[in-house]
Write a structure and sequence with these properties.
There is one protein chain. With 211 residues, the chain is an all-alpha fold. The protein is built from eight helices and no strands. Helix content is 79%, strand content 0%. It has one domain. InterPro entries: YczE/YyaS-like. It holds the Pfam family DUF6198. It comes from Pseudalkalibacillus berkeleyi. This is YitT family protein.
């Protein structure tokens, strides 16, 4: 059964993606992803934890996506929405992230976080257990408006960034170049994982045909 191959990639991808977020949060003064700007702003303004806000925002997007286009909502969407936030909180609570002491090391740590997020995001997306709440939300809008996902992503993340900034979230130079760094890494990890899922699934398909 192909799920036996997909599920490990999905889980590992979510863990890496969450760890990348936690790493980037440690150097948030350099700038972080627009969605994390919003989560940190909500945390600083209203309390709870960063992970809790990630879950709440994710579930809010799932509800909107449900009314826009149900095709992008399945079990993987909920697993993503409910697990990334707690995992980020866990990594931060356990102090399992680097703590840079200079600007050079801070930039290195931020790039590490971006790379790990890109690899993790590519892995869990390629597993095809389900799109994350943010991805599903943007795909739904893209389908409804008949425009490209890249254009929707730019508009949505720009609006999220402005909202996060207005609420007091950390915005700096790296916030604006996040997508340009992360997208190629995501794409490479996505294609590589897709290839490995197919390779590892081939013997299982052969077994199913024989039986």
């Amino acid at each position: 059964m192909k799920l036996r191959v997909q599920i490990p990639f999905f889980i590992i991808g979510l863990i890496l993606f969450s760890y990348g977020i936690a790493v980037a949060i440690q150097v948030q003064h350099l700038g972080i992803h627009p969605w994390d700007v919003l989560n940190i702003a909500l945390f600083e303004k209203y309390g709870f934890t960063i992970g809790t806000w990630a879950v709440l925002v994710g579930l809010f997007l799932v509800v909107i996506s449900y009314f826009l286009d149900k095709r992008y909502i399945n079990i993987g969407t909920f697993l993503n929405a409910l697990s990334v936030g707690p995992l980020v909180d866990l990594f931060l609570y356990m102090n399992w992230t680097p703590h840079p002491s200079s600007l050079t090391s801070s930039i290195f740590v931020l790039i590490l976080g971006v790379v790990v997020m890109g690899v993790g995001g590519g892995m869990y997306s390629a597993a095809r257990i389900g799109a994350g709440p943010r991805d599903g939300f943007m795909l739904s809008i893209s389908d409804k408006l008949g425009t490209s996902i890249s254009r929707v992503r730019i508009v949505v993340e720009s609006l999220v960034l402005v909202l996060g900034w207005v609420l007091g979230g950390p915005v700096f130079i790296f916030t604006f170049i996040y997508t340009f760094i992360q997208s190629p890494i995501f794409q490479y990890a996505y294609h590589l994982t897709t290839k490995w899922v197919e390779i590892l699934s081939a013997p299982l398909k052969t077994k199913e045909k024989v039986s």
